[in-house]
Fold:
Amino acid sequence: MHDEHATPNPDESATPEDSADGASRRAVLRTAGLAGAGLGLGALTGGTAHADAPQGAPAGAATAADAPPRKGKTMVGVPFQRRSTVRVGIVGLGNRGGSMIDLFLAIPGVKVVALCDPVKDKTAAAAKKVTDAGQPAPATYTKGDHDFENLCKRGDVDFVYVATPWDWHFDMARTAMLNGKHVGVECPIALQLDQLWELVDLSERTRRHCMQLENCCYGKNEMRVLRMAHAGKFGDLLHGAGAYNHDLRGLMFDPDYYEGPWRRLWHTRLRGDLYPNHGFGPVSNYMDINRGDRVTHISSFGTPALGLAEYRKEHMPAGDPSWKETYIESDRTISLVQTAKGRVIRLEHDVSTPHPYSRINSLGGTKGVFEDYPERIYIEPDHTNDEWGDFGKYAAEFDHWLWKEHSNPPGGHGGMDYIMIFRLMQTMQLGLVPDFDVYDAAVWTSPVPLSHLSIKAKGAPQAIPDFTRGMWKKARPGVDSEKPKA
Structure:
């Protein structure tokens, strides 16, 4: 699964959000300028290079769960304003953005009104998709790295979708909210704890939702397991596991796949789990994280970083720019996460060694266990004699209504991309609370900086902040949604 592979309506002046109660080649140059061989985490913020602590984090954020004072009102349970048409601006039109535009265009009541990418050919190709779909020609923004700021200033954009290299995600999400736009960002939403806190605070201050668009939460298996968990089929939940184990060596060294080496360069900068969201998001949903339980600590361990250097030796010619890179990212990172209720979540990340694709996607409780890749289940009293059962037999009863309505969805990744975008646009059109929010985004991404810190500290536990500031104790709906009546 590849990530970013890159005039107001007068009827919309008063919104429920205002009532708190209720990628480009040039981006690669930016990355390269920051990511000299072996630089530590401190380099990301312009401070002295120091790999043991992120610069500018709130006091205690990396070592204690205490939250800084709230600067606005919570966004928990805040609905979108109802709107018959959702007007979308897309930033980043590489592999990911260039394909996701097809899904936005496939949904009735969604208009793509603005596009941004410094690579003009990609912007032009995406604009043609819009007009071919029978929509007016979108405004285009191609004048350098920061032209996305002009897209975000438009008065006719309701939602900004960001699919750019990772080190732009925070800036773009921040800019969108400061300009009054809801924003959805590909994984990971940010790379430092202080950035995660700032996005939480900005969402609360601006009354705009900031979401990590985690498509795996909408996978067919993931949604079935979620509904089974909520129905008590696994008993009291005890443990879960998720991963991003995906051999990306060929793609990371392919000069034509990514817009430059930006993804590979992250392996010269951080040692921890660079991409936890695909595994962490679904398991967090199973366990109602931020909705009755919360994650409290993470301990991470990493293997030596040998895989990319070995692949380079075998496949890259002498003189290739990659020979100047020193890889520090653990080939396999394994993290254990504890929750307030004592449950344990195992996360893995490995994109540097040969192995079949797996997100692990496992959940266990007092009545049994599910494991994916391949899918199999064992729960009492349905199964006996230590023999795995057929997970497919639970489809009719437990498949989510979204998958029953869209049994053959368009788009990649088995249709989960379309299900995610359809549901997000539906919540905006009907004025519903989104399935996940900025607090989920912060939690699901927090292993990026914290696993790095834990590995540097030889596995010492790192506290995961309570981004909800106590709101996690209250049960509330999430991805396991009810079908709207309207």
